[in-house]
């Protein structure tokens, strides 16, 4: 592990750069957006509640652009991506929920899986042609205990368990980063896929959780500002593709941002490739209209492992 004592003051000048942060109306996403804008970036906040998002950044120094985005609704994800034009330097997939009660989205997906993994998977694929630098995926140390059921990614046949669904979704995020980086490398792309884990930060994330872990173990927790440092480090520092950035102390839960390593299950290349295929099938546009909006068959981005029709976007990123 490479230890760093890193603070927000070391964020380089980001003037002229554009960053999208999902779920940025509060919590770690808001802190991250504010810090990036302070450093000169145009911070585009993808939020469910536009008014609240605007209020959260009103009067603050920097350039903000607050746009509607519900990552659990693929229609909203497609609309956000379709409205995008120009370069996007960094996409930060931050929006997330933990241990919420069982619920289905408008598309019929398990809400927790859709919010934490399926929506960000689609958003990433749709925006990737614009991305010039990197995609940051926000995961959790709990991915290490995650189990992926490729036959039931979406909790249709198994009894739903809120924390198991959270752990699985955060493992899926880690595997998504691994396979995305492999596809980018195979294309000779300079774009990086990077993971950020905040450790445990005192935000509203545990609001639904019966485990109440954040309040029970204060000695293990970070302030929200310190938790966001992992996202900021992953978004702005020169880290290798598929780097795992998280707190360096106490089991990766607390401390300064450090370059670490995902859990063994998050480094399984074969599982990552199979998960990509299963996910692509699950989120494939169901209507001709949605497929036309996507322009390309969104999830075949990059080079597939197995032989088959090449449906890559016409203009892959440089
Ligand atoms: N805090 C921690 O200890 C911790 C640890 C590991 C990983 N993480 C990860 O860090 C990320 C940020 O969490 P947080 O701690 O900042 O929690 P938070 O304070 O609860 O914030 C979550 C954010 O995600 C947004 N969001 C939820 N569902 C959304 C949807 N469908 N579409 C768009 N935005 C949505 C929320 O927006 P609304 O205001 O509209 O609800 C909110 O802005 C999550 O991915 C989480 O899993 C956090």
* Gross morphology: globular
Order of helices and strands: EHEHEHEHEHEHHEEHH
Mean pLDDT across the residues is 89
Number of domains: 1
| Distinct small molecules bound, one entry per kind | NADP nicotinamide-adenine-dinucleotide phosphate
* Low-confidence spans: 295-318
Strand order of the largest sheet: 3-2-1-4-5-6-7-8
Helical segment count: 9
Give a quick account of the main beta sheet: strands, pairing sense, barrel closure.
Answer: 8 strands, mixed
The class by helix and strand makeup works out as alpha/beta
At the fourth level of CATH, the homologous superfamily is NAD(P)-binding Rossmann-like Domain
Give the number of DSSP strands. 8
CATH domain topology: Rossmann fold
Which CATH architecture?
A: 3-Layer(aba) Sandwich
**Proportion of helical residues:** 25-40%
Specify the CATH class: Alpha Beta
């Amino acid at each position: 592990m490479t230890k760093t004592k890193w603070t927000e003051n070391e964020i380089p000048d980001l003037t002229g750069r554009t960053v999208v942060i999902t779920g940025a109306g509060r919590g770690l996403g808001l802190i991250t957006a504010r810090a990036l804008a302070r450093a000169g970036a145009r911070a585009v906040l993808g939020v469910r509640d536009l008014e609240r998002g605007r209020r959260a950044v009103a009067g603050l120094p920097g350039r903000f652009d607050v746009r509607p985005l519900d990552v659990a609704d693929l229609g909203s994800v497609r609309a956000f991506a379709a409205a995008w034009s120009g370069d996007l330097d960094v996409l930060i997939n931050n929006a997330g929920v933990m241990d919420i009660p069982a619920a289905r989205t408008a598309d019929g997906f398990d809400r927790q899986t859709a919010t934490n993994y399926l929506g960000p998977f689609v958003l990433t694929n749709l925006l990737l042609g614009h991305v010039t630098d990197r995609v940051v995926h926000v995961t959790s140390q709990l991915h290490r205990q995650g189990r992926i059921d490729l036959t039931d990614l979406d909790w249709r046949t198994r009894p739903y368990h809120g924390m198991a669904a959270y752990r699985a979704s955060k493992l899926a995020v880690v595997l998504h980063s691994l396979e995305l980086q492999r596809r980018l490398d195979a294309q000779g792309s300079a774009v990086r896929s990077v993971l950020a884990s905040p450790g445990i930060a005192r935000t509203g994330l545990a609001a639904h959780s019966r485990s109440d872990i954040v309040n029970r173990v204060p000695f293990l927790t970070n302030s929200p500002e310190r938790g966001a440092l992992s996202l900021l480090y992953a978004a702005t520092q020169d880290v290798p593709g598929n780097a795992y950035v998280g707190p360096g102390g106490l089991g990766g839960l607390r401390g300064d941002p450090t370059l670490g390593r995902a859990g063994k299950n998050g480094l399984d290349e074969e599982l990552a490739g199979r998960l990509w295929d299963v996910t692509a099938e699950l989120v494939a546009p169901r209507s001709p209209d949605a497929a036309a909006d996507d322009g390309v068959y969104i999830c075949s981005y990059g080079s597939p492992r197995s032989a088959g029709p090449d449906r890559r976007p016409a203009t892959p990123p440089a």
